[in-house]
Amino acid sequence: MSEYIIKNGHVFDPVQGIKGDKADVAIKNGKIVKDSEVSKSAKVIDAKGKTVMAGAVEIHAHIAGPKVNLGRIYRPEDKLFTCTPTHGHERMGSGNSIPSTFKTGYEYARMGYTTAMEAAMPPLFSRHTHEEIRDTPIIDEGAFPVFGNNWFVMEYLKNREVENTAAYIAWLLRATKGYAVKVVNPGGTEAWHWGLNCLTVNDPVPYFDITPAEIIKGLIDANEYLGLPHSMHIHPNNLGNPGNYTTTLDTLKIAQGIKPKNKFGREQVLHLTHTQFHSYKGTNWGDFESGAKEVMDYINKNKNITVDTGNVTLDETTTMTADGPFEHHLTELNHLKWANVDVEVETAAGVVPYIYSPNISVCAIQWAIGLELALYAKDPMRCFITTDHPNAGPFTRYPRVIKWLMSQRARETQINAFKHKDKVLSQTGIGAIDRELTLYEIAAMTRAGPAKSLGLSSMCGGLAPGMDADVVVYNINPEKPFENPDQIEAAFSRAACVFKSGVEVVKDGEIVSSGNKRTLWVNAKVNDNPQVMRDITEKFLKYYSVTQANYESLGHSFVPNPYALEVDATQ
Amino acid sequence: MSKKITDVICPFCGTLCDDIEVLVSDDGKKILEVYNACVIGTEKFMHSGAKDRITRPRMRQADGSWKEVSYDEAADYAAQVLAKAKKPLMYGWSSTNCEAQSMGNEIAEVARACVDNTAAVCHGTTLIAVQDIGLPSCTLGEIKNRADRVIFWGCNPAHAHPRHMSRYSIFPRGFFTVKGQMSRKLVVVDPRVTDTARMADVHLQVAQGQDYELLCALRVALKKEWLPDTVAGVPKEKIYEVAEILKSGRFGIIFFGMGVTQSLGKNHNIDEAIALTKDLNEYTKYSIMPMRGHYNVTGSGEVLAWQFGFPYSVDLTRGFPRYNPGDSSSIDLLNRGEIDAAFVIGSDPGAHFPISAVKHLAHVPLVCVDPHITPTSGVSKLHVPVAFNGVETGGSCYRMDNVPIDGRKVVDAPEGMLSDEEFLVMVRDRLKKIKGVA
Fold first, then answer.
1. Do B18 and A95 touch (CB under 8 A)?
2. What is the pLDDT of residues B51-71, one digit of tens each?
3. Structural domains in chain A (count)
């Protein structure tokens, strides 16, 4: 493999604590090595006056699988003026909020992202999710199967059988080539199969006689019993409703006192996703206000929690979630077309287009809440930037979100452009915040932090020797202040160069290679558990519509280049 | 000795049964017996052993006779046809696996072709309606476990999807439906007294072509508003009665077929059916699902959508994906005479397109990739027989509810025969060489 040395760049790497010092980054055999280990023939990349960071890590996005593709199928309007031609190494592409698979890979790479997690994989559809992941070039990807409304999980946890739940999780991760335990509206989505919902953590789930709180606690326990790389990753009950911050705090309190147990350096036991959608005060859309302060205060104090923001980007987008009842609620609200898929035994999902208009006060307040969360966060290693793509906005807007976070001037410009500016200022704390995030903090929030939370801190998110050579050079000179905040957005939109596992994939914002994409999954070994195996066989015979032998995602066309993280929970 | 292969997927209809068992001879070359499949599915498996099967590509000669050629010569010809054409059509894809569809899309991208699947003459109108209004749906196991109201509208699964009713929709006992058929009320809407209609609790014998009116009337009846004495040939008392049956269920499902998608009103019928489903969700829980025909027409739509963004009738001739059914759909392209070459695989437009469109197909260089002799192969310039997908080769397929299931190979193809995907790879490599792309 080729050798490279990236010279004289300003390096920002929270893993090694480097805050913009000039340093060289050497690459050999796909790994980062000490400068002295590359030969003289190593290709030199001059990064003088530029910023060098590790490849960014996406912790939560909906980029592959059945509901993403349903969005593509039913929204031809999303393709208007967004189709891209065959170009050099690039296949044709289309779409803005739900880009085609090829375009998804290229757009992430161009921004300097080299790893991304698909946030909700219905287990029955794992083969579909993996086929799309296979067709998404360059970036390493993993997918989180959903567990929060799964009949096995609810039946085991009703009897507090954590060990059986863990054995089932291990089996399902292997069968679906999944990465982590995802929970979406625990219990509420099962209730949705009868047209109902669970809006607090204590609402009983119809028929199953269990509460969301019990599901959450049980899944955290099972996750730590196994010692998985990532923690339980939760989208709590009551998403998107005024006053829901109390439900969010109730959810977070369930993790109180639980300690992480794993060999991956992960320190949290609960990851709260798209926190913006869960930080609302008020009682209706008229007195709607921000609860970002209350939620972030709690998170700042509790070190066993990580979060991502879910920033609203003020675009037209396509919402999609395994929170089926929420999407029905949304279509009643905006009267745009509604798609829904209830999945036997496991989960459900819904899709509804949404327009975050800067002329609507609620949308503008949502915009402010997302930014408030990141700006109130005391530890950037525990608060990560996402747009919950495509729910709060497309992932291609990350550079703009970074601009708003790094520049108070940019925020003021946007606030002044809102139709209901006064309402935004009175209902949120955004106007009083003068904090501007530094490049070092951005590197923590987009690289080192999410990598650590995912249990990948020894592989990616940093530039220490031995880590994968995922390296990005941006056209940003940290010694010169920006004349205009838009330069931040421009620089993060098109990286000067990107290496993925030591292969140069982007040069001057152009794709130059399709890289060596891998599918990340977790292979957890547990003691033989005949009861769980018998239950699985029984459920397939009685309640599934496919046979057990046809459920698994096997090699060949589904996971052509796997990378398994091994976990041994047999002790 | 013989061996039994279990959990085999049936490559016939969108029901995509995956519990088929096949008994094969010890050398793995001959199918002896097929268990669990319907008569059509069984025939699909047994047919691969036909003695008169064509096993090598053949080219049409000037005198109208066929001449056997090698796969290499066939791939050369196909690549040249695609390379020379200004607007080639690549049609079919519904009876092959997703791997082949994906390879075909890559060829279409290089050749700048129009790509279309059999939704064009089937559930394409459904897709247009879904783009208008959405689609509340579910997987088939949900119906088995929960449904207590089942509506078949304009479809006759007793004949077209023979195991649908026993596996998913009427007879099975599920988690919340322990009494099987006794737990469900069945409503059939069809102008004919079909075998499905004979099983119904209520058969609404709608006047032909008036499905839209009846759907509207049901929406009115849900709200208990005024109706004329008869709508679409059905007395109003019957409509109010059915509306009550629908509303009183806990979990309902509307299945619909070509009787509504391709009769008068087309996509507007489906718009209204989906709106009815949406309305029913105000009272209880309802889903709606198209009864897709070919076993992997759904997969073709999925692959096209994740690669190009649109589920059918995709036009790549301008170098980027475009979608405009009516303009970019196969029959319209053929009827306007815009197509100057055609590549047909996994489908038989010769039998199913209007004669005006087939006439045009016969006049252009037509490559037909199909294990059978069909009306399409009859008017083709090159006929490439391939291994039976789902019998002699595996690969990913999507059921009518979009659930992917991996197909299984049960026997070897006759010696020297290629699969769809293998032949497409040969064409792609040659085409790229001619076009000079890496």
1. no
2. 899 999 999 999 999 999 999
3. 1
